[in-house]
Every structure is written in structure tokens, then in C-alpha cells.
Amino acid sequence: MEGKKTVRAAERALDILLCFTRKRELSLTEITRMTGLNKSTVYRLLATLEDKGFLVRDSETDKYQLGFRVWELYANLSRTDDPAILFLPEMERLRDTVEETVSLYFRDGFERIRVQAVESLQAIRRVAPLGARMPLAVGASSKVLVAFATPAEQRAILADPSWPSSVDRERYRRQLEEIRDQGYATSVEEREAGTSAVSVPVLGRDRRMIAALAVSGPVERLTMDRMKEIVPRIMEATSRMQKMAAK
Amino acid sequence: MEGKKTVRAAERALDILLCFTRKRELSLTEITRMTGLNKSTVYRLLATLEDKGFLVRDSETDKYQLGFRVWELYANLSRTDDPAILFLPEMERLRDTVEETVSLYFRDGFERIRVQAVESLQAIRRVAPLGARMPLAVGASSKVLVAFATPAEQRAILADPSWPSSVDRERYRRQLEEIRDQGYATSVEEREAGTSAVSVPVLGRDRRMIAALAVSGPVERLTMDRMKEIVPRIMEATSRMQKMAAK
DNA sequence: AACTTGGTTTCGATAGGTGAAACAGCTATT
DNA sequence: AATAGCTGTTTCACCTATCGAAACCAAGTT
């Protein structure tokens, strides 16, 4: 599939690191189970990761968790212009007016990734783990991220062989046009049972999309009417975000 | 040195990742130079890192930079109880009252690492890159981090063979006692010419130290007298932080 | 046209990573 | 006390996947 020549040992080490996006604390055996690798292989790789400071182990439980080095790398990632931090205040403000969970998504290849979220304060609410990756085929934000991508990107995405066959591409394509027209997308129990969502693109200067901002919640509360009602609220937020991103 | 059996390929991959803490954008040849590895080795490892999403390459310059996966990992690092975020408001408050740069340091092995910083708003100020690593032998925060470590940790640190010979251990040990007595440490042009700093430990519940909070600035402005003056300010901040950390 | 400078590919030799299995240390169960 | 069961750790012989030199391209420079 991937033509590139890669290094297996390194690949495995990175896979192990990524296990920690699913669970904060992991023991050696848990990791061997998750990765399907041999126990001693994992053992050696864990030793390397620990040695380099990417993992630390809790002195009591002996379980591993992500170490300082991750933090260090993060600190050198984007930073000042990091929308995940930059937009946070605006997202909180939106959350307070609509009283539902607000999420910010980026597109990364054929997936979207939740880079920031502030949760509704209501008892019944959508919980949204950061860093979660989801397919581009379903969900309001996915459709926004595809609809406002450049034509070339769009072609690439729709040509993706891993696209689920359950999603009718023609119908999807028509939806995209509609979304471009009205400037927002909605979804009702599309990706996740019991939740619906509205999403709006966040455009940078030169009109290129940088992210999708979404409000999501339980279907009972977030009806179609309610969503249409709050679209202007979201747009206010995104337009302010766009001003921030422009400077 | 390190008795543990580690995996070389993985080690190298991680080394390459860490190069990006020094420079945000790197090309293949730059990395080969920095690491001293063979060009094709680096090439393959970069392919692996890119494949796994830890690096992305800029379509124009062809240079690599850290990718989303780093963000994803970070998002799953501590988080809720992450002092780097938790203490930020308190640090800003302190910055506003003392009008100097405020930094938060953790100890990691035989180094300290700047995990958070808010900069003085004055024109002349200490700039403080996040994630920077510094030796434990010099600097106000280093001394705090050593002085308030557990006896066992302290022994380990002082026994570190890489300890610079220029630092007199006996004198250092006496300083530590003094610091424990008075509850804070100062330094004048110790690690960095032209800057001085005051530092105070942030203790968690059960009195164990979790970090060192420091105020630093140019020697002209941050005189000994001035530092003694602001010690109570810092302590107010740390005591509030301690309450936050306790819950 | 010869010479850089950067990324990419090939290929044979062998370092070194791999996995099975044994070991050790601990707790729960009999 | 003996047993079983679950960790993490270490050993070792095999052989594959990794490595580095060198060749190869493709763009710029001189």
C-alpha cells in the first residue's frame, strides 16, 4: 500500500506511543495485547522510549505513561498561532451562549481530528476526547471539512479507496454543494447514535479553510430547528476567530 | 552507561524527533548533519515518521516539521491535572503584579525543563522558550528543585558524574540548606549573563515538591533588594497553586 | 558543460533485532 | 506450604530487516 521504505522497529515504537492516545496508563502486557507484538519486543521498545524520556513509569503501579519529551515536542509545535489555544476563549464564549459542547476539527489526510473542545455544562452532554480521529465520510464537521477543501483536495478525498461503501458518493457530492451554498452542515445520528451536530468552516485570510467549528449534543435537545437557530451564533464566533487568525 | 537493552532504530527515530525542539523546520540534510547519521538512514526514518504522522512536510520547501500526532499525544498527556495549564492564570496574575517574566520548571532526571512561562510585558525582558532544558547545577530554580527534592533524589543528583567540575559541591550543599531555611533561592548572572532570578517551590499535598516557580529579569531591574521584595508575592501565588493542585 | 547541493533508490554484508522459552518475583488460591 | 497464575526481565541462536556506500536524478550555480 505505502510504497515508501520504512523502518519497522521505529514504526513499532511509534505504534506503541500511539497506544497512549487510547489509555493514559498502560502496562507492558496491555501494550503487547493492543499491538499484537511479542512481549520482549515491546519490552525493549518500552525501554528505549523510557530512556529517551517519551515514556515514564509510575513508581508504584509500574505502568507507563507519556513523558516530558512529548510535552517538549508539543511546546515546539506551532504555539503562537496554534488555533487550538488561540480559539479557546472564543469557543468557551460560544459554549456559554448555546449551552452545548463545542469542538474544533482539523482535517489530516483522510481523517478529521478533534483539536480542541469545550464541553456543555449540562448534565446530559456530549463528551469529546481531544485528539480523537474520525472518518471524513460521516458527521457534520466532516462534510464541512470536505466541502470547503480546495477542488484538488476534494478529488483526492473522494477518490480515497478506504471510503466506506455504505456512503453513497453521489448523494454525498450533492450534499456538499448544498453545504457550500448555505455555509454550514448538520448531521443527525450520522456518526454516533443519539447525537446531532451543526458545523461551520473557519476560514483564514485568502478564504482558505483552516478548521471546522461544531456544536454537538443529544438529538432531543439539538433538533433541526434548534440547530438552524444557533447557526448565526456559530458564525459570529467563527468570524471573530477569523479576525484573530488573520493578524 | 545505561544498562538497559534498547532498540537502535527506534532510538534514532526519537533522536530525529527531538531535533525539532531546536528548530521548527528541518530538511533531510540538516538532520543528517545534526544527528551524524547516514543520509539514507535518516531518509528512511523520516519516511517512517511521516508515515505515522509525527512529521509532515511543507509542500513548498520540502522541509519537515512536527505533525499532528504530536498534538494528539500531548492531548492525552496528563491534561486535567497538568500544572502547565492549570497554573497559567495564576502565573499571569503574578506577572501582572511583579511585571517580570514568570516561569514554571519541572525536574526531569538531571535537568530541569521549563514547562510554562508568561513573559514580562516590558520592552526589556527575559524571553523564555518553552520546553527548554537546563542543567541542575546553576540557576535559582535549579537550586530550588534540588533543595526541596527528597533526600534520596538529592543524593542521586549530587552523585551525577556529569556534574560540571566548575561548581563546588560543598558550597552548593551549604547553599541548599540556606534555601531550605528561607524557602526561596536567588541567582545573579549564574546561568545566563545579564539576568537574575528568584525561585520558590510549589509543593503539592503531602509536602512533596511538584515544580519551581521563578521570576526572572535583567540584573539592573531585578536587584537583590527587589527580589527580596517580591518573594512574598511569589509565595502568595504558589500557595494558591498548591490549593489548586490539592483538589 | 562541469560542478554543487539536495533528495531518492539500489544492493550486498552482516549487525543487531527478533521471538521462544526460561527465569524471577509477587499475589491469590488450594 | 505448595500450587498456580500473573507480572516483568533476561537469555540466546537464528536469520531477517537494517545499514551505509555508492550510484542516480533533478535543479540550481558557476
TrEMBL record, chains A, B:
GO terms for biological process: negative regulation of DNA-templated transcription. Residues 69-247 form the IclR-ED domain. It holds the Pfam family HTH_IclR. Residues 7-68 form the HTH iclR-type domain. Keywords: DNA-binding, Transcription, Transcription regulation. InterPro entries: GAF-like_dom_sf, HTH_MetabolicPath_Reg, Tscrpt_reg_IclR_C, Tscrpt_reg_IclR_N, WH-like_DNA-bd_sf, WH_DNA-bd_sf. One of its GO terms (molecular function) is DNA-binding transcription factor activity. May be an activator protein for the gylABX operon. This is Glycerol operon regulatory protein.
